[in-house]
Amino acid sequence: MKYTIPVFKALTERATLLGGPKEIVLLNAVLALIIWTMFNTLWIIPFNLIIHFFSIYVNKFDDRFFICLLKFLHKKKFYDV
């Protein structure tokens, strides 16, 4: 007899918000709100949509890309040859 246990995606993948990583989507929304309130212009919306769709695109291939990028940028001198 062979027993199998179903594993849900929530146990193996990171949670997303609107398809992108939570941290990036929230940061993008907060920056858009700050820029909108400072300059009172809606020209920021296309730029935020581009950033949002880019984060969704990257998240489809590697859900930990932004975490690795942040750690790389933090320790950039360590990895410099």
UniProtKB/TrEMBL annotation:
<dbReference type="InterPro" id="IPR007792">
    <property type="entry name" value="T4SS_VirB3/TrbD/AvhB"/>
</dbReference>
<keyword id="KW-0812">Transmembrane</keyword>
<keyword id="KW-0472">Membrane</keyword>
<dbReference type="GO" id="GO:0016020">
    <property type="term" value="C:membrane"/>
</dbReference>
<feature type="transmembrane region" description="Helical">
    <location>
        <begin position="24"/>
        <end position="51"/>
    </location>
</feature>
<protein>
    <submittedName>
        <fullName>VirB3 family type IV secretion system protein</fullName>
    </submittedName>
</protein>
<dbReference type="Pfam" id="PF05101">
    <property type="entry name" value="VirB3"/>
</dbReference>
<keyword id="KW-1133">Transmembrane helix</keyword>
